[in-house]
Amino acid sequence: MKIRFIKLGDGGKWERYCIEEHQVLRLGYESPYHQDSIKGNWEIVYKYWLAHRKGNSGAARRDLNQIRDFYELSESDLWITFYKRKMYWCHAKKEVTEIDKHGCRVREVLGSWSCEDKKGSTLYIENLDGRVTKVQGFRGTICGVELSEYLIRKINGEVQPEVQATKEVLVSLKSNIESLIKGLWWNDFELLIDLIFSESGWQRISVLGKREKDIDLDVFSPLSQKRAFIQVKSKATVQEFQKYYETFKQYSQFDEMYFVFHTFMGNVEELKKISDPRVVIWDISRVADLVVNAGLIDWLLAKRS
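That's the Restriction endonuclease type IV Mrr domain-containing protein sequence above. Prediction below.
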């Protein structure tokens, strides 16, 4: 199977027409040689573009190769393009049709253009390898695409082998980090949470400790301009959460409340019933993720060594 990127008009001027309105591939390269292209009389087409390119044989040959791809690629070959920061893909019917007197041609899409993989996940540009998306800068109309095997797996919704291997390692790493966190002395667990907030750009207002009887951490985010009430518990219960939640509601100066723990004594599903959007719950899984993201693994290892 061949894979080709197609630019749908200069500056994407045909993207909406092709993808949203008509479900087609559309080729410019307007010329009077549509029938010759269908019949494979490529020398005639080449001579036309050689004259159009004022004798530049390299440019004329590149034009011809792109036109031939449009006419000759089979229905099993794959076409991709980019629209609204998503990658779209399709297969196209073999027949090429002229749609106006100027020689503009189209191929109907088999089914429809899709911006999702075969498992239903959207193919956002930011989640694609740059060697695939760089074709957006191609100055012509049709070109090949690097990493064909990667692209096929992406469209099929398959995890790349190296990504799967890394995910398996991360699952094991996270499990080990959770075990290390659970073994921290309660004061070190509070310090760890303080470091996570600090590494995330939050600024501590009150000193870590028990000077405030109802607050473990009082922090402020310069970016969001929000102030947060943070309560940290090695072991937590629903009753403790309710107590601190009632306290939080009494303080009008706080915009958010974080309730953080590594072990829950009781049914943790009770916490999920909280509908207040200002309240954030961090369990051991979330804390472990943040330890990795904040680069605090070495600190944790040093504490537990």
